[in-house]
Amino acid sequence: MAKEIERKFLVDSAKLCLPENGVIIKQGYIATASKTAVRIRVKGEQAFLTLKGENRGAVRSEFEYPIPMADAQAMLTELCQRPYIDKTRYEIPLGSHIWEVDIFHGDNQGLCVAEIELGAEDEVFAKPQWLSQEVTGDARYYNSSLVKQPYSLWPESNNHY
C-alpha cells in the first residue's frame, strides 16, 4: 500500500526567497461519502488522478495515476466541487529533501504553506528559517478543506499571511 508521510508548515513570506520556476497547479475534488479525498490535478502540462485516505497524524494512504489532459479537464468541469484550488508550487531543495512551497491564488489568496515528504514519521530534517507554525494534521489547511471553506472566508483573526 502506498503511504504518504508529509509535514506541513505555514510560511513567513517576508523571509522567503522563491526560485523563478514555479509550476501552476489547478485541482479539484470529487465529493465522496467517506474520509477519502479524490483529487483531479493539472500540474503544468501533466494531469493526475489521486486518491488519499484519512490522515493519521502525518501519514495517510495515497495512490496517484497520470491521466490524459482532456480527461482531467472534463473531470474538473463536470465532476469537481467549486471553487478549484489554484496555486503556484515552488520546489526548494534543502539538505536531502525538497520543500514544496505553495502560494495560493483565487479564493485562497494570501495563504502560503510549505510541505516536506519524509520516509518515516520520526525522520529528522532541516527546517529553513522561513518556516512558521506547523499545521500538520490541522484539517483547515488540507486542500480538500480549502475547497469547502476557502482561506478568504476564514475569520480575520486567522489570516496571518
UniProtKB/TrEMBL annotation:
Note the superkingdom of the native organism. Answer: Bacteria
SUPFAM superfamilies xref list: CYTH-like phosphatases
Could you name the active-site residues?
A: Y29 (proton acceptor)
InterPro entries with a match to the protein in the record: CYTH-like_dom_sf, CYTH_domain, NeuTTM/CthTTM-like
* Pfam family for this entry, one: CYTH
Q: Write down the SMART domains for this protein, in alphabetical order.
A: CYTH (SM01118)
Coiled coil, from the record? none
Transmembrane ranges, per UniProt, are none
CYTH domain location is 2-148
Which PROSITE patterns does the annotation name?
CYTH
Recorded protein name is: CYTH domain-containing protein
Q: Which organism is it from?
A: Dasania phycosphaerae
Q: What is the lineage of its organism?
A: Bacteria, Pseudomonadati, Pseudomonadota, Gammaproteobacteria, Cellvibrionales
